[in-house]
Amino acid sequence: MLKERRPSPLPAARFAGIVACGHGRRRSEARGDPSRSPAPAGRGRRGAIVGFVLAAAAAWAAAATKPAPVSTEEFFIVSSVDSGKGLMVVKRPTEVTLMMGLTEKTRCRDEQGKPIRVTDLRAGDTVFVASPPGASGQPVAASIRRGPMTVPELHRRYLRF
Asked: Of 44, 101, 125, 131, which is most buried by a Cβ count within 10 Å?
């Protein structure tokens, strides 16, 4: 003998309204049945996603607080030197051009550490420059060291393996 099918206690029009409104609740939740409510945020898939996001944010914050490499010199390629105006145009390896101020206190050295004049620098020379910002915000070269970018120096500055 077949059981008779009973209609839902929730009228069809009301149930269709809940679904159409996008409430996304199951009927047991709509009635307030706590035995069939979803797992709290601390458990299940939602909890795993929240935990992953928190762990990723903590790892990102820890990486952001690590100190930068100790080197205070930056690597540049000389474009031009105008010692009369006290300016030097240099280029980063990323092709970004920068005007850098020169003063009488700017120290220049060659690859062996011997002092040289600023006028000894030519376009295309590779240099390492320590340059704190000046009063106008433009960087001013405190020291210039002419020398090539070696493979060990490249790894130390830019690569982390």
From this structure: 131
Total domains, the chain: 2
Read off the pLDDT of residues 53-73 as tens digits, 9 standing for 90 and up: 777 777 766 665 544 444 488
SS3 label, residue 107: strand
Distance CA(155)–CA(149), nearest Å, equals 10
- The last residue of one of the domains, among 39, 64, 89, is 64
Q: 82's torsion region: left (phi>0), alpha (psi -120 to 50) or beta?
A: beta
Note whether residue 50 is domain-resident.
yes
pLDDT digits (tens, 9 = 90+) for 79-122: 999 989 999 999 998 889 999 999 999 999 999 999 999 999 99
- Round to whole Å and give the CA distance between 41 and 94: 46
d(CA 123, CA 80): 5
Q: What's this model's pTM, rounded to 2 decimal places? A: 0.53
